[in-house]
Amino acid sequence: MSSRLDTPRRVGLLVTCLMDAMRPAAAFATVRLLEAAGFTVDVPRAQTCCGQPGYNGADEQTARALARRVMEMFADHEAVIVPSGSCAGMLIHHYPKLCAPGTAEHAAAALAAKTSELCAFLHRHDVQPLEKRWRGGKVVWHDSCASLRESSTAEAARAVLGKIDGLDLMEAAEAESCCGFGGLFAVKLPELSLELADRKIAALMATGADIVCGPDPGCLLHLESRIRARDLPLRVMHVAELLAGEAPS
Amino acid sequence: MSFRARSRAALADAALQKALANVPPGFVAKRARAVAAWADFESVRKTAAAHKRAVLADLETHLARFTERAEAAGARVHRAANAGRARAVITGILRRAGARAVVKGKSMVSEEIDLTAALEEAGFAVTETDLGEYIIQLRHERPSHIIAPAVHLSREQIAADFLNAHDDLPPDRDMADNAALVEEARAVLRQRFCAADAGIIGANALIAETGTTMLVTNEGNGDLCANLPRLLIVIASIEKLVVDFAGAANLIRLLARSATGQEISVYTSFFTGVRRDDEAGGPEEMHIVLLDNGRRALLGTPFSDMLACIRCGACLNHCPVFQAVGGHAYGDVYPGPMGLALQPALKPAALEDGIIEGCTMCGRCAEVCPMLIPLPDLIRQHRFRAHEKGYGARAVRGGLRLWAWLAARPAAYRLATRLGGWLLRRFPMLARARGRKLPAPAGAPFMVRRRS
Ligand code: SF4
Question: Is the CB of B419 inside 8 Å of chain A's CB atoms?
């Protein structure tokens, strides 16, 4: 836990493209959580996407161009918050790889150093959930691969959610295996992507949960689109929505 | 056939799916236990990975040293630049020695150069003696896994193959459990070992200090291949080099745990030269064939990391795609993450059929790789190259171009996300496609509403 002194008061938010377009409620929840904790949230107007589709999907040039944009737009912020494990991982681990020595490697390193995934940030600054007492049903947690391996989210999220009374977070079997989203993977190999989604959904539902909650809008959208197509009794919530006391959708 | 078509067929293959279901509880869980029980895993992993990279940085020196020591011990060392050359060298050795019956240990390099087929074509009688390899030889298949070649098969399938192949045995014999199958294979293979003129084995390491080749197996078949016939041929790729026994020992410790969760494989054998006068066993003639086949060209590129691979198979076992489709869907010798990273590096044509798309970038392979190979980064590099070459479906490429154009123009981008959300709300049938039903966003995009 840090003292009040090294706590940034004004933070930049990279809302991420999927949350912006497909899950705006989670973005508003993120802002409410941060503002309630006393932070001023700045949302640069020029933001679109962090570049992951190009980065993992083949187009290095575009990924690099978008990385440059993001680096510029947050150049003056003390801290940057990203409510998505994989987009946070993109800024923290992959932008530096896109900027060869002699290009923008210092800017990339500076951005990486001040970027946090939302849960990691909330945990580090001891931010309290707005939801005090949980009455919403049984919740199973879904780590995204990036939040396990790239953004130090896994423990932080459990710690922050642990502050909500009556919330008994369940863990699914095979929690470390991928849900099969993978960005363009889901587009290029749709059958495989659905198969992996079904395996993941089976593991999540085997816990008896009513709600799956996670830190990554990509995985959640992927799982939700499959859950809805199969008409399964499992609802989906982004961790910001749960912490901010939103009703499950 | 594309990777997508092959993976679709694999998903629809019930027998295959049943066999693959054994991978997570078997390999994954066992590796996890072995690594958790070994406090030195991280430090040995770092030491071994650094050792290998140092060897690669000075490969020629170590190769020369290995060659000199091995030849001093009475072996002959051959360099083969490519698969064809390696096959020709080995065929030549066998012919000159007047060999006919050959017993063979498991070796991925021999699969890479398609050795068995070439030798059979040249008139040699070749028997694969690793149980898994023996089974797939009967079936005329390729291995589906680099350490468990027959992992795609169920016991019932194997029993049926044995009934077919061993037609001199009573057809009503009991084949109900694994032990019976192993016993039967052992009896058949024993005759082949005793009758063999030559043995061919692979190597898990080449120890430069002493000119020794190292082999680990769980069945001991490699030792019989090496020690019973008078002629021994070891086939290995050049990156198997380590400096000394200490370097080899670290690989042994990492390999078994990463592969099967054992602390050490059942047999770990070292072969240094031919039988000496005071020795009771061992070959009278020993040849070591060192294969390049595109490897040296990787030095100095990002893909040289793949030359540190010890073929433990951990990346396959932990890969969600491999777990779902098995090894044959990859359509070549090396499957799973290591195959995605290696295959197109060795032969660029592999970029075209889409195997490099068979990765969700989940990163679990790199997390478990004992040699700290950044597999997703390497796979991504291949994707960049494929994209530059213009490969991939036209629709996806077009979509990426449109996305790139919009993402650089926030105003147009807002309009597009707004329109997309509106369409999904207004026309729910648009949300249904290919087994999915997208949830319609609740309201306009955040970035549109945040303005006010
Ligand atoms: S890439 Fe790593 S995990 Fe995969 S087979 Fe090679 S050494 Fe093992």
Answer: no
Chain A residues lying within 8 Å of B417, measured CB to CB: 17, 20-21
Which residue in B304, B314, B322 sits closest to B367, CA to CA? Answer: B314
Rg of chain B over all Cα atoms, to the nearest angstrom: 25
Domain final residue, candidates B269, B291, B313: B291
Q: Is B384 on the interface with A (CB under 8 A)?
A: yes
Is residue B164 a part of any domain in this protein?
A: yes
Domain that holds residue B447: 410-451
Q: Number of H helices and number of E strands within chain A?
A: 14, 8
Length of chain A: 249
Class of domain A10-124: alpha beta
Task: Note the CATH number of domain A139-243.
Answer: 3.40.50
**Domain total of chain B:** 2
Please give the model's pTM, rounded to 2 decimal places.
Answer: 0.95
Q: Last residue of a domain, which of B229, B259, B291?
A: B291
Residue B256 lies in a domain: yes
Query: In chain A, where does the domain assigned CATH 3.40.50 lie?
Result: 10-124, 139-243
What residues of A are in contact with residue B437 (Cβ under 8 Å)?
Answer: 225, 228-229
Which residues have any ligand 1 atom within 6 Å of their CB?
Answer: B 258, 309-315, 338, 369-371, 373, 375
Cβ separation of A62 and B434 shorter than 8 Å? no
**Contact in structure between A175 and A192 (CB atoms under 8 Å):** no
The chain A residue lying nearest B393, using CA atoms, is: A188
**Nearest C-alpha of chain A: how many angstroms from B241?**
30
Residue B216 DSSP symbol: E
Indicate the SS3 state at residue B288: strand
Given the CA of residue B313, which atom of ligand 1 is nearest to it?
5
**Residue B283 shares a structural domain with residue B420:** no
| Cα-based angle B386, B388, B389 (whole degrees, multiple of 5) | 65
In a domain, B399, yes or no: no
Helix axis angle for A105-114 and A60-73, nearest 10°, is: 60
User: Residue B289: what are its φ and ψ, rounded to 5°?
Assistant: -105, 115
- pLDDT tens sequence for chain B (452 residues): 889 999 999 999 999 999 999 888 889 999 999 999 999 999 999 999 999 999 999 999 999 999 999 999 999 999 999 999 999 999 999 999 999 999 999 999 999 999 999 999 999 999 999 999 999 999 999 999 999 999 999 989 999 999 999 999 998 898 888 899 999 999 999 999 999 999 999 999 999 999 999 999 999 999 999 999 999 999 999 999 999 999 999 999 999 999 999 999 999 999 999 999 998 888 999 999 999 999 999 999 999 999 999 999 999 999 999 999 999 999 999 999 999 999 999 998 888 888 999 999 999 999 999 999 999 999 999 999 999 999 988 899 999 999 999 999 999 999 999 999 999 999 988 888 889 999 999 999 999 998 64
**Which residues from chain B sit within 8 angstroms of residue A47, using beta carbons?**
410, 447
